[in-house]
Amino acid sequence: MANNTFPEDWRDQPCFLVTVPRPLVPFVGGLLKIAENRGFWQSEEDFTRGYTAIIELEECLMALCLDVLMEKQDALYRLLNTALLGQGYTTVSADPLVVTPAIAPHVSLDILDQDSLLGRVDRLTQLVDNRLAGTDTPLYDNLPGIKQQLEDIIAALAEGTDLSGVLSDLEAIALLLA
Amino acid sequence: MLKPSAVVELVWQDETGSTAVTALSIPSSLTVDEIDADASALASILVPLTGCVLIKQRIKYINVPETPVTASGSTPIARTGMFFFATDGISSDGLISIPAVKDSIIMTTGPGEGILIDETNADVIAFTDTVVDNGISNPFGDDFTSFVIAYLQSRV
């Protein structure tokens, strides 16, 4: 009599990932046949649990190809690289899947497209630097910063000089911010 | 054509776990309940004669073609299509095996090339829909409610 038992808490126990080459799948699945039989198990309860686990394992044999899993992981990487840094990709062929540029071993923080997430953050940083501090940045170098404008106003007020030029710059800034 | 006799198999087991079968023929015009009652009565009479215990009794009605038929293809019988079905999500999934499945229902591209059964094939759909719609169940009597996946296994 078979004495094979199967624990009640089998779903709570760890699982192990095994890769099975495609040509081996029919044989691996076929070898599991013995555990589908009531006679393999010690009790009716063991049979119910064991059969359930075996059938789910057999379903899993063809449910998720490792290549597909890796392709999805690569796709997720490209999504992040495009969204964060602006790296563009081109699909050269669909089967087999070839996408260029290839995934690099590492990436730098160089922003490749100002419309990426970090590109937009960089644009905001440059805007603030330029508008507040008057710092010339690659994207913004049009007007003196607000800080400088305020200093000019204060200096002009102290000296009683004409404010029309300063006010004109402030109007231009207000228009830009509108 | 239903054969005139059904087969009753009384399955015996000795202390080592080995099993043997007492096979009896009985008119197939009787119902399952009638045959089951007769088999149980006979088994109780046999118990004093054997050191085994009765662990199972099977009743088989046998239906055969009117005239002998022969397969014309060259598909080996071990090339088995395994069709997996889900139940209600609580009970166990289950399977139905079909021997010697044809190449025409096997995927020819993609990761499952040469092994995966094409679930968009019209004949496959007709089969899986029929299973789901007609109360076919897993070994525990729970009806299949949906098709999961099908692929080739090597089974003898």
Give the count of helical stretches of chain B.
Answer: 2
- Helix percent of chain B reads 10-25%
Helix/strand-derived category of chain B reads alpha+beta
What kind of oligomer do you see?
Answer: heterodimer
State the shape of chain B.
Answer: elongated
Domain count of chain A: the total is 3
Order of helices and strands of chain A: HHHEEHHH
Radius of gyration of chain A: 33 Å
Number of strands of chain A: 2
How many structural units, i.e. domains of chain B?
2
Tell me about this structure:
The complex is a heterodimer of chains A (178) and B (156). Chain A has 178 residues and is mainly alpha-helical. In chain A, helix 5 runs antiparallel to helix 6. The radius of gyration of chain A is 33 Å and the shape is elongated. Chain A starts with 24 loop residues before the first helix and ends with a helix. With 156 residues, chain B is α+β, with helices and mostly antiparallel strands. Chain B folds into 2 domains: 56 residues; 76 residues, no CATH class. Chain B has a 3-stranded antiparallel beta sheet, with helices on one face. Chain B has a 3-stranded antiparallel beta sheet with strand order 5-4-6. In chain B, strand 4 and strand 5 form a beta hairpin. Chain B starts with a strand and ends with a strand. The model of chain B has no long low-confidence stretch (mean pLDDT 93). At the A-B interface, helix 1 and helix 2 of A face strand 4 and strand 6 of B.
Write a concise keyword list for the protein shown above.
heterodimer; A: 178 residues; mainly alpha; 3 domains; 6 helices; 2 strands; 51% helix; elongated; B: alpha+beta; 3-stranded antiparallel sheet; 2 helices; 6 strands
Map the helices and strands:
The complex is a heterodimer of chains A (178) and B (156).
Chain A: H1 25-31, H2 44-61, H3 66-85, E1 90-94, E2 97-100, H4 117-133, H5 146-159, H6 164-177
Antiparallel strand pairs in A: 1-2
Helix pairs in contact in A: 5-6
Chain B: E1 5-13, E2 19-27, H1 32-46, E3 53-60, E4 79-86, E5 94-98, H2 122-133, E6 146-154
